[in-house]
Design brief:
By secondary structure, this protein is an alpha/beta fold. About 50% of the residues lie in helices and about 15% in strands. The relative contact order is 0.18.
């Protein structure tokens, strides 16, 4: 099964939600007028895209309808897809890892699939011929280190770990030395599940970033925030909280195969201007790929 087929299969609940709400508008209305656009706006809001983003999409559609003299609902649907794609194409979705070594710092609250995502991203990079070192800097939970060790083994990556409770920044320091000494291409750093109301955890994140910037000042750095698609609008609050503590360069979307709330992706990107770089739609190590806006939009509408 190709990735687009996996994506369509994984997003089936979100597609059903969109079909139920949005297609109902298209099947009910024969005329493209203000009533039609009002109903469509309400359907977008109910599809977890969010109030502000839905209003913006409809505003852009209204302008296009007038300018292009669109009269058929199917033409509106095509324009709707294009407007969504335009939002998702906010900036370059590729990873910038041109230095040797480069760094990927992975952040996110507990339970979003952060450790699993690291394993899958590592696997993706190893398949490209890159040598990967993983730093187990979530030292607050022994289970987190054990889980990361399993995924490192599955992805043929090396792992740097220490005993539970050790200063996370010191683990990162050791991992940087290992990455340099072993001529690794990429260092991926796992971090604790930091909640915005846990100040000491955010302080640890800042310490980790200072170590990376001091020891690897010239290295390319990506900061990826892992978001659980099932959390819907709560995911937007998580993005805002982490943006205050780190320069997030991209999002990793997980668990979209288990939710009807995939539309939240569009709202998150629109409100934060941060691109989605990876999307996960399954449990297997190969079930994560570089995000493709065209495929995503076509999979849900």
């Amino acid at each position: 099964m190709g990735f687009f087929d996996k994506l369509k299969s994984g997003l089936i609940k979100t597609k059903q939600s969109f079909d139920e709400k949005i297609n109902n508008v298209f099947s009910t209305f024969r005329k493209v007028d203000e009533d039609f656009l009002d109903e469509l706006e309400e359907a977008l809001i109910m599809s977890d895209i969010g109030m502000e983003t839905s209003v913006n999409i409809i505003s852009s559609l209204r302008d296009r309808i007038k300018k292009e003299k669109i009269e058929e609902p199917e033409e509106v649907k095509k324009a709707l897809r294009e407007e969504m794609k335009k939002i998702l194409d906010v900036s370059d979705i590729s990873l910038h890892l041109n230095t040797k070594p480069s760094v990927i710092l992975v952040v996110g609250v507990n339970g979003v699939g952060k450790t699993t995502s690291i394993g899958k991203i590592a696997n993706n990079l190893v398949k490209q011929g890159k040598k990967v070192v993983v730093a187990a800097a979530d030292t607050f939970r022994a289970a987190a280190v054990e889980q990361l060790e399993i995924w490192a083994k599955r992805s043929n990556s090396s792992i740097v770990k220490r005993e539970e409770g050790v200063d996370p920044a010191s683990v990162v320091f050791d991992a940087i030395k290992t990455a340099k000494n072993t001529d690794a291409d990429v260092l991926i750093v796992d971090t604790a599940g930091r909640l915005h109301n846990k100040k000491y955890l955010m302080d640890e994140l800042n310490k980790i970033q200072k170590v990376i910037n001091k020891e690897m000042p010239e290295a390319d750095k990506e900061v990826l925030l892992v978001i659980d698609g099932t959390t819907g609008q709560n995911a937007i609050a998580q993005v805002k909280a982490f943006k205050e503590e780190a320069d997030i360069t991209g999002l990793v979307l997980t668990k979209l195969d288990g939710t009807a709330k995939g539309g939240v992706v569009i709202g998150i990107v629109e409100e934060n201007k941060i691109p989605v770089k990876f999307i996960g739609v399954g449990e297997q190590i190969d079930d994560m790929e570089v995000f493709n806006s065209q495929d995503f939009v076509e999979a849900i509408i």
